[in-house]
Amino acid sequence: MSYSSRLDRAFQNAPHLELNDDSRFVLISDCHRGMGTSNDNFLKNQNSYFAAIQHYYTLGYTYIELGDGDELWENRSLSQIVDLHSDVFWLLSRYYKENRLYLLYGNHDMVKRSLSYVSKNLAEYHCNSLRECISLFPGIRIHEALILKDRSKDIYLTHGHQADIINSTFWKISRFLVRYLWKPAERFGVLDPTSAAKNYTHKKKTEEHLTQWACDHQQILVTGHTHRPMIGSPDSPYFNTGSCVHPHCITCIELESRCMTLVKWTTATREDMTLYITREILAGPVCIDDYHLEK
């Protein structure tokens, strides 16, 4: 099956959400939340991430996570990840209770496509401070793709691993290699050659596939997977949220008033040497009406 067919299949039965002038969405991908070890790349940006999602919660945004939210190739236990990052999951549960949370799965958390796995691991969690189990995401369904339905132009959301045969069709082999070979080797500075985020040639090829699909189908496509943040142009309706595991920041896309803005959240220093979290616009806003696409 070609990459184009895999993407077509992902959107074939994708649920729809309404997009209008009042909609506010934040699109985040590739958090790779781990278990607090030296391999947990999320740890260095956890404060920036929490500040960002707290900001979006207060302003009434709907949170959409485009896959690889949890690092389940290097780690086996999702419950331990939830326990370690309980503050994050507590806030995400508040989004969920207000119908403002949608989660997609990527290649690194592909196991979330199983309803039984999700029910077992994400329905509730143990709150250490209260010493009891607290409701988390009861009844949630995690999909491969999502479509934001607009009056003129829809926005197609997915992780993007479908454009990459190693991380889609052969994901179990890649998981085995990462878990038992590249994870130990990473401690010595060896990069995972199967990763679209770390291998430049692989990254470029994947982005070319995703861009080609968006152009061929005349659809606005937003993904993660490659970790390279990207804002589309009128000639190329392909966007990428980036990731939450950049060396010094997280990146995401804000969708408000039918316009998309690429932003980053990072730690900065005031003159009195105190630290604070700051938001910076990287590109945009780009209005979806600027894209002259055929529906």
Describe this structure in words.
The chain has 295 residues and is an alpha/beta fold. It has one domain: Purple Acid Phosphatase, chain A, domain 2. It has seven helices and 13 strands. The strands form three sheets. Strands 4-3-2-11-12-13 form a six-stranded mixed sheet. It is globular. The mean pLDDT is 87.
Helices and strands, with pairings:
Layout: H1 3-12, E1 16-18, E2 24-28, H2 46-58, E3 62-66, H3 78-84, H4 86-97, E4 101-104, H5 115-122, E5 124-127, E6 132-135, E7 145-149, E8 155-158, H6 171-186, H7 200-217, E9 220-223, E10 238-240, E11 249-256, E12 259-269, E13 275-287
Helix pairs in contact: 2-4, 3-4
In a nutshell, what does this entry contain?
The protein has 295 residues and is of the alpha/beta class. Helix content is 28%, strand content 25%.
